[in-house]
Amino acid sequence: MKSQESVLTIGRLAQDAGVNVETIRFYQRKGLLREPPRPPGGIRHYTAEDGARLKFIKTAQRLGFSLEEIHHLLLLDEGMRCSKAAQIAEDHLTEVRARLQDLQRIENILANLLEQCSRGDKDVACPLIAALQAD
Fold first, then answer.
1. Cα(54)–Cα(18) distance, rounded to whole angstroms?
2. pLDDT higher than threshold 90 for residue 112
3. What are phi and psi for residue 8, nearest 5 degrees?
4. Higher model confidence: residue 127 or residue 90?
5. Total-model pTM
6. How many CB atoms lie within 10 A of CB 15?
7. How far apart are the C-alpha atoms of 46 and 50, rounded to whole Å?
């Protein structure tokens, strides 16, 4: 029999991972987290392994991986080759780098507009607003 310390309710699992109970149920529906059987007249019991898997999901999300990508990464525990996981991460890194380039362009444009605002161009009430209104 499992020790009381290794058995968690869904509420305790959620609390330990810093998520909502509905988040756990959502992950179960998506196939990211197992749904333990409910004993007759009892409540479902989760394990420390479930907690570790939930923390893996949350960490991967913070790194920007989609739920589909996370699902594929979780297959590592089920025998998927590491080279496939590396390909998923490489594809994700390419996307992140493209977003960073976009953000750099946005930063440069905004910095330029703010500089124009600080110079107080007399022909335009506000260069920032004028630029946003332009095509």
1. 10
2. no
3. -120, 145
4. 90
5. 0.69
6. 13
7. 6
